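**User:**
If convenient, please work through this fold.
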Amino acid sequence: METLMLPFTPRFIVLTICTVVTALLLVLGIFDHKVFDLVLLPLVIFAALTALGFRDLVQKRHAVLRNYPISAHLRFLLEEIRPEMRQYFFESEKDGKPFSRDTRAVVYQRAKMDLDKRPFGTQEDVYREGYEWMHHSVAPKPVASEMFRLAIGGPDCLKPYSASIFNVSAMSFGALSPNAVRALNGAARKGGFAQDTGEGGISPYHREMGGDLIWEVGSGYFGCRTVDANFDGEKFAGLAVLDQVKMVELKISQGAKPGHGGVLPAAKVSREIASIRGVPLGEDCISPPYHKAFADPIGMMRFIAEMRRLSGGKPAGFKLCIGHPWEFLAICKAMLETGSYPDFIVVDGNEGGTGAAPLEFMDHMGMPMREGVNFVHNALVGIGARDRIRIGASGKIATAFDIARAMALGADWCNAARGFMFSIGCIQSLSCHTDRCPTGVATQDPTRARALVVPDKLTRACNYHHATLHALAEITAAGGFTHPGEMMPAHFSRRVSGVEVMTFTQLYPALRPGELLEGTKDLRYRDAWAMARPDTFAAAV
């Protein structure tokens, strides 16, 4: 049974005041009958508010009410009074927020299994520049009844993984609370999908729920590091062989802050996290922007092969945000020279989210996801390796259309972070880095994290995953396909001006199989391919 604690913090000040006033009025009315009639009405009001506050503390549906009893009702009241007030809570993309209010509302509705349909047709301005759509077929196919999966693992992989095409993107324990990790991993187990651990490593809360894991290893080597912060193969092998770990992933860079390294602010480095990660307590936990285990593309390929070996032959790959084109092409040349290939590559876009990063990195560093995915897809086609390497995509993916669009551009599967965060209660208060998350999702404060009720939010995350894939099955069938992997760039269009439309085939020209090896004339790749060397990330001059 949950132990209910009422800390005297500003979050509980309204409940505290109501409780104290109720007690004073009750005492005054009991001991002075002359004023009883005067205090009766305020006593009833404050007693009702106190009862409401304690109900808020113990109810399990709304995390924000558990953390802000009584006062948080104002949020819901404003939404009920006037629907337009939702704009205050679900800002448009023009306000610089990650998702439109409609997208976030759909995530919440699907997580709660509420009706996600709406009246009055398209609410988008279909004639605005940048509007995109998918083509439908006059001969639609039956909607698939089974959730879409794919096998990940190349010829060198001994234990291929049958993965969902929609999984939880990298979010570390530390950035997320223990209850958030439990909820997402429990949902992964219940719903048959995977959770990426983030570079914070495998915590007890990941293992407790038993869901499939993709273990991400960053430059800090958390969970598999020596005392001097180098990679420890023995520690890595000890965890990588766990049955719960289905794939191992080397993090090269993160879309929201490529070239910056990971950051967990000191406010969130608890004693537990310091122990798990092997870092000092009370200091910013910063992983370096580069790896010490290798220094060049050839070394990187050998390191990934070693990760595969140490894991017992599980799929091994890497994640990055595309920067200098010649650097990724140098990695491709290293694959060819060593004969060692990753089983998968996750392409993170610069629109990806993070709990803490400088503004300039979030807004202006790295290639956007769509361009990055298509670049990687074409590069692998160009060296004749596309059939053996799977591509994952992450970066502002939340809906079925987002998944379909990414897959048409070259992705085999997609990961989502913020969509799953919304499903377990995140209201995007933008306080992730302060340790004062109002819903218990992104905090290490146990009094705040208790607001996130694991069984309830686990179910919501699973609902969101299932409903999103069902929507994907519906639009796949409407397009005349049996699997979203059949979608091609020609099946999508974008309005590039008020009077001009282009298909994705025109916007994202494709390379022929082996074209890079033959000597391409495509200017997007020709010069970068010439500058790429397998023995260095630096450009050849």
User: Anything to note?
Assistant: The chain has three domains: 10-73, 83-126, 149-531. The chain has a mean pLDDT of 88. The CA atoms of residues 76 and 82 lie 10 Å apart.
